[in-house]
Amino acid sequence: MASPERNKKILLEMVKQPSNDHCADCGAPEPDWASYKLGVFVCVNCSGTHRDLPAISRIKSIRLDFWDDSLVEFMKTRGNAAANAFYEKCVPPFYYRPQEKDCVVLKDQWIRAKYERREFTGESSSLQQGYSSGLYEGILWKKGKDNKQFLKRRFLLSETDFTLRYFTKEDSKKPKAVISMKDLNAVFQPEKIGHAHGLQISYLEEERTRNLFVYHDNSQLVPLITRSSIKEGYMEKTGPTQWEPFKKRWFILNLTDRKLSYFKSSLDALELGAVFIGTEGHGYSVREGQPKGSRSGRWRFGVTLETPDRQFVFLCDQEQDQREWIEAFKLVISEPMLPQHYNTEANMRRMKK
Questions:
Q1: Which of 114, 165, 275, 302 has a CA between 20 and 30 Å from the CA of residue 76?
Q2: How many Cβ atoms sit within 10 Å of the Cβ of residue 86?
Q3: Could you say which DSSP state residue 115 is in?
Q4: Chief location of this protein (predicted)?
Q5: Alpha carbons 277 and 18: distance in angstroms, whole number
Q6: In this predicted structure, what is the pLDDT of residue 81?
């Protein structure tokens, strides 16, 4: 007869082992759930997708559910390291692996590709040929630049020259745009776009940020291009003298290029401007509040960003927003600058002269 307490103790010891102490799918620490068909330990968020795949995975709580001896013995022969060595054997280097803080949609696609379609085991020669070809194609619905209509567009990701192209016609050979992946940032935006699989793709076009708003029905292209921004939302912004009227703008802060871009609204295609954010050693800092004597706006919670060239003043609607923006700025400032960041800083300064 199975001993619930003994089996629970064994599972709790197993989940402390290296590789088992983090979710097999997103890396979240201290997973409390396990798939007794796959032999992996997963977090509560990833366990939801596993429950939707009953033919592939069966989930139990390692703390609350009853475990038969046979299931515990099976878990002892598997574990996250062994399972991932098989299911992630041939993950392409450019394929984005979701992290703990990523959205459910991205995790869901990763888990289905990993276990349901077994895309990375090396068993399917056609799948591996598709990945190894260096080209990956998918259909996304893209919002028009000057209207709200979404139109079907063909996107092509090339690992050879590390670019993303999109075409206005499915059979067209001439792309509408060729986007360098090193200048690209993509993040899920279901609420902003009004679709569960809404995606915002941002990239540089003549040193200005350009946004594409797309959604997909079930595109496997999305995990290949997805990245993340640190923080975005509305703030009020004044001008260089700090006596210009405050204007409400949509801001996006990105750690990859250390840029704070701002737009008239959340769905604008082209940025109005951008601020480079360096390190404290290079003269950048952030603090709560606004300078004395500066003009007031509709919102009350100030954020002052110091740069070598100018002092920027922003106002937030809520104190929580103020705290989040300050923490986000501090995170960027604390990160060391890479060689490409010095080029970005120099280019942005040159454009403002």
A1: 114
A2: 15
A3: I
A4: cytoplasm
A5: 37
A6: 95
Structural contact between residues 68 and 60, judged by C-beta atoms closer than 8 angstroms: no
- Give the pair of three-digit tokens for residue 4: 């619930």
Structure token digits, residue 198: 């809404």
Q: Please, which residues have CB within 8 angstroms of residue 132's CB and are 6 or more apart in sequence?
A: none
* pLDDT for res 97: 85
Q: What is the pTM of this model?
A: 0.52
Question: How far, in Å, CA of 202 to CA of 256, rounded?
Answer: 12
In sequence order, the 6+-apart residues with CB closer than 8 A to the CB of 65 are: none
Helices (H) then strands (E): counts for the chain: 10, 17
With contact defined as beta carbons under 8 Å apart, do 50 and 108 qualify?
no
What's the pLDDT tens digit per position in 293-349?
Answer: 788 889 999 999 999 989 999 999 999 999 999 999 999 999 888 877 888 888 887
Q: Please check whether residue 156 is in contact with residue 165, taking contact to mean a CB–CB distance below 8 angstroms.
A: yes
Q: Which of 230, 251, 228 minimizes the C-alpha distance to 331?
A: 230
Burial of 219 by CB count in 10 Å (0-12 exposed, 13-18 middle, 19+ buried)? Answer: buried
* Rounded Cα distance, 155 and 285, in Å: 40
State the CB neighbour count (10 A cutoff) for residue 134: 14
Residue 82 CB contacts under 8 Å (≥ 6 apart), including other chains: 39
Residue 226, pLDDT score? 54
